[in-house]
Amino acid sequence: MCQALELGEGKRVRLITLASEAGAELLGAAELSAEFVRTAGQPHRAAVRFLWKGDQAPGNDLLTASQRLLDLSVVDRGCLLLGQELSSPLTADQAAQRVDSELAGLRGPDMSEELRRQNTQLLQALQDERSRSEELERLNKELDETNAGVMALYSELSGELEETNRGVVALYADLEDKSRRLRLASAAKTRFWANVSHELRTPVNAVIALAQLLLDAGADPLTPEQHQQVSLIAGSGNTLLALVEELLDTAKAESGRLEPQLVEADLRTVLHQLRGTLASTTAENVTLEIADTAFPGPFVTDEVMLTRVLRNVLSNSLKFTTEGSVRLTVADERRPDGPWAVFTVTDTGVGIPEDEIEQVFEEFYQVRGVHQRHVSGTGLGLPYARKLTELLGGRLTLTSRLGHGTRVVVELPAAPARPARPLPREPLLRNVVIIDDDPVFLRTLRPTLGRLTETTTEVTHSVEALRTIRTTMPDAVLVDLAMPSPDGYQVLQQIAAVPGLAQVPVVVLTSMGESDIDRSRLGRARAVLGKTHLTVERLAEALGLRARDTTSAPGEPTGADQPDPKDAKDTPTP
């Protein structure tokens, strides 16, 4: 009958099985009857209904199974209804006709055959269920084995990761130690450069100064051969001094102690000096062209740094250009942030391989090649030039092709500044006392002081300094810091202890670097000037001569209050 109503095989097996179990449990109940019914309404169901009298009832296991496996399971006193929902709804007449036709075919032994067939299907269904259970058990076992393998792999990977982490921590500690050593080595290198440069400057300055004295028009005449030899000495000294200054400035730049002193610069003068300095280094088949250009408007920069940048770039081009030309052009550009000066150096030299363009800005690096073998150099020129350019607020870029020359562009910002006032022609001071134990420096300083003072009193033994000052009562005192005891600091303290000398201006002259000067011990010294490139203008500015002899605008700072434009360490004391 279930088959006639098109009830699915699975539903059919569950309904037949539970109906059989219910009949077995209710067997023997009073007035027990069972009938196959079809429920009306929605949904349509095929069901078996048991009716009986008395207290007998099916067991809890059967009721639980029927509620879980069947679509319909209702139990009441003396009534049990078990059913399954039909797959395709049939009308009452269609259902009755199909059931009657099915029942008419069941007679005699055919009923037993049908039951055997159904039992066979039931057994097959149970076998299939058992097979599925076994397959599920097998899959669960495989899953357990897979989980065990995953856990083992996870443990192994965790151990390897932990070991790797320990290695990374150890490597990081090693790298930190190496970084610390590199920092210490870099600091030691910077100190070495600074110390060596500082120690070299004093004898080199003496060589240059003595050579200039011999070449001076007022000195004893020299033979042409002697004049040429002394000129070579002066030129070599200047070259050596420039290299020493580069080393010292590189060390200062790396330690963050090199600061530009910005003043209004005369660009045409800078270009003229470069033209005269580099003319002798130009090869026979090379033309050096430096534009004679004045910047249209005020051009504020550190003139010494600018000169060194352009000299290094031009020197580098001249070294590696055997024929053709080296050209420097200057242009002004108006940009959103103000006027800029653009210096362009082009040459027809050997050029630089493309993969080495960035490396030429590494300190001491030199491009290898046939053309470079016989060219001397330290490998500091371009790195030094780029550092100075960046300190001036600009940038230096380089483009080159091997065999087709090189092009270097230096871009610097410009800004207005107050022009320097000219010095009076006549000496302004009556007497100046200079306390220094270096006879060579004293000899080179005399012509400079001769333009500022009528007489100069030199004290080479610092023990006599205070007595000489009190005796002569000079208009100004110049003191060197590095002297035998008492040193310059002690002399400054002695001067400050005398109330009558409070109005005498004191200026410190020294070859010491900025970091070596103890400014807390300078007392009332008006300024600290480096002995290198000491000029009349710088000395007059420090002594305040321009302020005293030239009327200043109201509220305008005097010369003594301005930082020295020539050297990073030559700044007024606080």
Which keywords apply here?
574 residues; alpha/beta; Helix Hairpins; Heat Shock Protein 90; 13 helices; 46% helix; rod-shaped; disordered C terminus; kinase; phosphorelay sensor kinase activity
Low-confidence stretches: 416-421, 547-574
- Please compute the radius of gyration using only Cα atoms: 53 Å
Tally the beta strands: 16
Can you give the mean pLDDT? 79
Helical region count? Answer: 13
Distance separating the two termini: 117 Å
Describe the global form.
rod-shaped
CATH architecture of the largest domain: 2-Layer Sandwich
What's the structural blueprint in terms of helices and strands?
Elements: H1 9-26, E1 30-39, E2 45-53, H2 60-69, E3 72-76, E4 79-85, H3 92-104, H4 109-215, H5 224-255, E5 263-264, H6 267-278, E6 286-290, E7 300-301, H7 303-319, E8 324-335, E9 338-347, H8 381-391, E10 395-400, E11 406-413, E12 429-435, H9 439-450, E13 453-459, H10 465-472, E14 476-480, H11 488-496, E15 506-510, E16 527-530, H12 536-543, H13 545-549
Parallel strand pairs: 6-8, 12-13, 12-14, 14-15, 15-16
Antiparallel strand pairs: 1-2, 2-4, 3-4, 5-7, 8-9, 9-11, 10-11
How would you summarize this macromolecular structure in one to three sentences?
The protein has 13 helices and 16 strands.
Textual characterization of the structure:
It is found in: Cell membrane. The protein has 574 residues and is α/β, with parallel strands linked by helices. It has four domains: 96 residues; 118 residues, Signal transduction histidine kinase, dimerisation/phosphotransfer (DHp) domain (Helix Hairpins, Orthogonal Bundle); 152 residues, Heat Shock Protein 90; 115 residues, Rossmann fold. 46% of the residues lie in helices and 18% in strands. It has 13 helices and 16 strands. α1 runs antiparallel to α2.
